[in-house]
Design goal:
two-stranded antiparallel sheet, 2 domains, elongated, alpha+beta
Length: about 400
């Protein structure tokens, strides 16, 4: 009866109640949405590269090296020589080495030149290996393996021919149209920048930039960066130090985990700002709820008189106001959850293709439930002033 009375009372004032519920729904959507995207973005970045002990490139900041070699963001300051790659790959403490050559693109997507070690040793998430949705890795000179998003967005199939462009812009006036590549494989989705990348052989990269097709002409003179897997984790800092002190040319080796920590340190201010904005939006909605309940007390004099006449206590009236506020909060939470779930499903493809973010719909975790419990508690506190006002008014009505 108590719950039914509260529900009917809210329905009776549906215009103001709906506006309040809408404001609260938006605020809760923003709060849990920001927190979920923040956590998912951090997890997505952290899972992009796994099992790689060192990333080696030309001297630059460790953050810049991480961004262009792993996330395909920005451009390298310089290249490293092929001789340096061969020497490091042959080091007795190095188990495997993946060369990375960047600089070309296709319709806005980055092209990565590498070798078969990439498919053999590259890992993401919890040391998950790359797998093929269709086809196989490149073998011939002008074979290309597509990331899942590239194939999906451009509607490419196995056997299709594509032309690469010089540079990394969305439009390029220098097309390598004399050397079209053939799609031989499409990778399974990873939720990482791999999905937005076209993979070709180092020799293929050389072939489109040079006219000669001799084995010597197709040997790279330099590469952009390289990933190293070491035989012993204990040797990591020793190898890093020796690379940083490499005499023949200025090289730099970074630990992916340390560079990621630096990235998130830089993002802390932005994270905190977004969270603060979300909190302010929620506070504004709760103040609106409190104002609506206070404003409705004058209109509800007859309702309060009737309740007192049938024997309802002042504490009953107090509890009724609190229950109405909590009901509106619970409806808002339900609507916000539905809206967030629908939004993530609807925009998941766009988030992956535009930002390389794979956002899970599994946002009802322990942290979110704690946030929702706090929201219910804050709603109860925001209804305290109008509930006390109703309590005092009801005492005077009898």
């Amino acid at each position: 009866m108590f719950l039914t009375l509260a529900a009917k009372s809210l329905i009776n004032r549906k215009a103001s109640v709906l506006l309040t519920i809408f404001a609260m729904t938006v605020s809760i959507f923003v709060l849990i949405g920001v927190e979920h995207v923040r956590e998912q973005a951090k997890a997505s970045f952290a899972s992009t590269v796994s099992g790689t002990d060192l990333i080696v490139g030309a001297k630059t900041s460790q953050l810049n090296l991480l961004l262009y070699s792993v996330f395909r963001i920005g451009s390298p300051t310089n290249n490293i020589s092929w001789q340096a790659y061969q020497k490091l790959a042959a080091h007795k403490q190095v188990e495997w080495a993946i060369p990375i050559s960047l600089g070309d693109s296709h319709k806005g997507y980055r092209v990565l030149g590498t070798n078969q070690d990439y498919f053999l040793h590259y890992r993401y998430a919890q040391k998950t290996a790359l797998s093929f949705a269709q086809g196989k890795q490149f073998h011939d000179l002008l074979d290309v393996v597509l990331g899942s998003e590239v194939a999906k967005a451009l509607n490419y199939q196995l056997g299709d021919k594509i032309v690469l462009s010089h540079g990394i812009g969305n439009t390029s006036f220098h097309q390598h149209d004399k050397h079209p590549f053939v799609v031989t494989g499409i990778l399974a989705p990873t939720g990482t920048p791999v999905d937005q990348t076209l993979h070709v052989s180092l020799q293929g990269i050389e072939a489109i930039h040079h006219h000669g097709h001799s084995a010597q002409a197709l040997t790279p003179k330099s590469i952009t960066a390289m990933m190293l897997g070491l035989k012993s984790k204990l040797a990591t800092f020793h190898i890093q130090r020796s690379i940083n002190n490499y005499k023949q040319e200025p090289l730099m080796a970074v630990l992916p985990g340390v560079a990621l920590a630096e990235l998130w340190q830089m993002m802390t201010v932005l994270e905190n700002t977004l969270s603060l904005i979300a909190v302010f939006v929620l506070v504004a909605a709760l103040l609106g709820l409190s104002a609506m309940l206070i404003a409705s007390l004058r209109e509800r004099q007859q309702e309060l008189i009737l309740l007192r006449n049938i024997g309802a206590s002042s504490w009953f009236v107090f509890a009724l106001i609190e229950l109405e506020a909590i009901l509106m909060c619970l409806v808002s939470i339900s609507l916000a959850i539905i809206a967030l779930y629908t939004g993530i499903n609807g925009f998941s493809d766009a988030l992956i293709s535009e930002f390389g973010l794979q956002i899970s719909t599994d946002f009802l975790n322990q942290n979110t439930l704690i946030y929702l419990a706090i929201i219910v508690l804050l709603t109860s506190l925001s209804a305290l002033l109008p509930a006390i006002g109703a309590y005092k008014n009801s005492k005077q009505l009898r």
